[in-house]
Amino acid sequence: MNILVTGASGFIGSRIANFLSNKKFRIFCNYNNKPIKVKKVKKIKLSITKNFNIKSSIDVIIHCASKTSVNSNNNKIIFNQNINMMKSLL
Fold first, then answer.
1. 18 has a pLDDT exceeding 80
2. Is the dihedral of CA 74, 76, 79, 84 positive or negative?
3. N or C: which end of the chain has fewer CB within 10 A?
4. The overall pTM is greater than 0.85
5. CA 18 → CA 14, 29, 80, 90, distances in Å?
């Protein structure tokens, strides 16, 4: 089973990716700026705020990525970027 974990460089996403990488799953993790420290996963540099294409088939998406006030202090921008991420994933 191929699993995409978004936000794998963050606290929750990295723990989920690490847990699943110890099972018999093929894990894909995206990153934008902050590198992923999880081993035994396929790391893909891409921004999920825009349309993207992954060449492997994905069976499950675990979406842990989000924009927060750390990334921007404009709540409207944060909200719109989070909505765009979800639309891109769908």
1. yes
2. negative
3. C
4. no
5. 6, 10, 29, 24
